[in-house]
# Entry
Amino acid sequence: MAIWLLGDRPALDSEMSTWEQMHNLSLPAAYKDLLRVHNGGILAKNHFPVAEPTSYGLADAEIYTIAGLNDLKRHIQEEQDVELPGTQIYFHQDGHRYIGLDYQMAEARVIYVDFETLQTLVVAENFEQFLGMLYFSPFNMNFVPDYPLEKLEQMLAMANVKKTLEILQLLEDYAAKNWYLTQIDGLLHSEEAPYRQAGIELLENQIYYFRRKLDAKCVDSMLQWLESQHFWPEKVAELRKEWED
# Structure
C-alpha cells in the first residue's frame, strides 16, 4: 500500500535502535518499515474512520503527515493540564489534536486525542491496522485559507497544475508570506512549463497587489532565476519593471 507522498531520507536501523534505547520503548514493526522508506513526511492518504464524532466531522478524522524519529513527541505542553495514564508517543499534531501510540497494552494502540475538547479515542488496536484504515478523500476548497500549513502542503503535493493554481490563488493574501513565496519559487523551478507559468502568474499578482508584504531579496532572487532561464521573457521583463518602479 502506497503511504508516502513525499518524505525525508530513509531512517537507518541503527538510528531507530538508538531512539528506542533512549526512550526505553519499542516502535511498532510497521512504523519502522515506514521509516525505512522515509524518515517522516507527507502522506498520500488523509483520512481515517472514527467511532464517534470529532471536531473534524461525524465519521472520520484527518491526518497529513507521519513524524520521523526526530519529530516524535514524548512530552507535549497540553499534558500539563490533562495527563493521560501510561505512556504515549505522538506522531501527528494538528493544533491541540494529536494522533499517537499508546503503550498501556502489550501492543501499542493508535489513539486520537483532542486536548481542547478532552476527547480520547482508540482508533486502532495496532499501527499496522491503522495504516490499513487510511484513505483519501478531497478536502473542502471553501476553507483553504483557514487550513494549517501541513494540510495545505499535503493538498499541494497531491494537486495537478490546475488545482495548485486554484489553491494558491485562494491564499494570495496568506499571512505566512515567506511560506507562500517558497511555494511560488518551487513552481518556478519546476521542469514542467505549465507549473512555471502558474508560478509566474502568481508572482505577478503578488508584485502588483501585495508588494509591501514581500521579502525583497526573495522576489529579486526569483526574478533573476526567471531571467537566467529565458522563460516567458516578455512577461518577466514586465514584472522586473513593475518591481523596480
Summary: The chain has nine helices and nine strands. Residues 172 and 205 are 8 Å apart (CA to CA).
